[in-house]
Structures are given as structure tokens and as C-alpha cells.
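Notebook entry, structure prediction.
Reason for the run: the old model in the group folder had no record of what sequence produced it. Starting over properly, with the input documented here first.
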Amino acid sequence: MFEKYDNIQIINLDYLTYAGNLENLLDYQNNKNYKFVKGDICNQIIVSKIFKEYDIDYVVNFAAESHVDRSISEPQIFTKTNILGTSVLLYNAKENWKTDKGFKLNKKFLQVSTDEVYGSLGKEGYFTENTPLNPRNPYSACKAGADLIVKSYFDTFNFPMNITRCSNNFGPYQYPEKLIALVFNKCKNLKNIPIFGDGLQIRDWIFVEDHCKAIDLVLHKAQIGKVYNIGGHNEKTNLFIVKKIIDYVKKNVNKDCSDELITFVNDRLGHDRRYAMNSSKINKELGWKPETSFEDGLKNTLDWYKNNDEWIKKIEKKPIVKV
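New structure, fully documented this time:
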């Protein structure tokens, strides 16, 4: 956003729990148009203070507990952040943007959601924006709940909002509990790589910068009230991803890395078999399409992790903060 626009100010509200890392934003910490606020989106006092101090035009709600395995073991944390936190943001936006005739112009709340709210697909077909919500784990269920609360504000108040639902993101700086970063780290250190079930679960992968470009378009050009699916058109099995990473590490990091590190474990509870997104709506209405091939994005990502070993070591030493 800073590379594209010279007239924006970004207020970054983050509680810095286990996955939050200020070192990811060192390049911007001294930018006069950037301000970091440490705080919980569930905290009404903090959120209200931000709205009072700044003339907020857009709220982009990226904030979420997002790891399915953690949601199975600690679902209450996910419910609090993803549903209550979204409600606090919505309420303050509505109260600060409302006028006697509706809402101030050029204001918008963008809820960043996930393809997982749709549930699981069979071997064929794609999720569209009209696919019924059918979440199957605590993470996706509370994201679906948040989506419905955002939708209710539009239906009830004509509140200026959009919802985006994106497929699996990957790229530099991703916390090492996510598949690509996790597997790279295990490969590098020749540790067993646990794969749920048969490893043939399918996900649609998108490079993070392509997702960010879609967010920017929806924020500035989309008609309020609309939902957009965002997909990378890269359906890959988990096993395929793992073998790609093994091949990269063997050639570039550790020649002893091999498929023998793969260890099949009991499948995750309620594990969705396949996700696949139809992104034709955002393409037709806003002109968006992914620009980064899966191969280029994966190499970019793995090169970054290979060259940032100290970043990974610092992340691994950071204590987990439960809220």
C-alpha cells in the first residue's frame, strides 16, 4: 500500500500474540504515515480511542486466530477473537461513520475471511460466492459467524462493507506453523514431516502479494455489500507440496533431505478434503487475477526462508501468549 499510494496513513492494531512479530515491519517503523498500536481488537476502550484519535476511512480486518489445529484444542480463544473482536470493530466503525442520513462517504469495512467457511468439496466443482456456508471446524465456524455479523450490519443499517474469502496464502514472513514454512524447517533440520491421513487433501494456493492486490481493489473499487472469492487457481495436494519442498531443500540447503522424512499420522479431526475457488466474479467486476505462478511464488518463499534463518530461530524462541 505504501508503494502504491503516497496519501495514506496506516494504523496497525495488533495484540502481538504468538504469531505477531514487529520485526516483520522494521522497514516501516519510522515511516511518518505508519503507526503501530499494541492492543486487542476485543478491547472496546482501545478500539474506540483509535477511532476518536484518527479519522479512519477504512477498516481491514485481517485480525484472526487462524490455525485449525489450535482451534480444535483451544476453540474459546478463536471464538473470542474472531467473533467478539469483529463485533467490536464493526460497532465502533458504525458509531463513528454514521450520519443522520446514513453513513459518511468513502468509508468501508472489509472483512478478510477464508474459503474454509464453505466447508469441503468433492472431487469436482468450485466454491462460488453463493455456495452455502458449511464450516466444519471451530476456526472456520467462527469466521463464518463473523462474516454473518458483518453481513447483518449491511442488511440492517446499509453499513458500507465487503467480505473477501481467500484460499491458502503463502509467502515470506509466514509463521512457521503453516504448511510450507513448517515443512521447510523440518526438511532443513532432517526432522520427520508429519502428514495427516494420506496427504491427498487439496488446497488452492495463492501468493500473498496477489491476495494483497485483490484486497486493495475491493477496498477502493467494489460496490458495498458484495462478497468476493479470491483464489490462486493452484490446486495442489498436501503431499505434492511436501515433496516439492523436499526437492528444493535437497538441492539448495541439505543434500541429505529425502522423502524418507515423510511420516503419515492420524488424520486431523473434521479434516476438509478439498477447497477450490471460483474467482470469476472479482475478475469480471474488478479486473483482478493472480499474477504469480505457483512455481515462482514457491521458489520466492523458500528462498526467503533459506536466507532468513535467524528470523526463524527468533520466532521459535518466542513464548506463546494465550488471551
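Summary: The chain has one domain: 10-317.
The old model has been moved to the deprecated folder.
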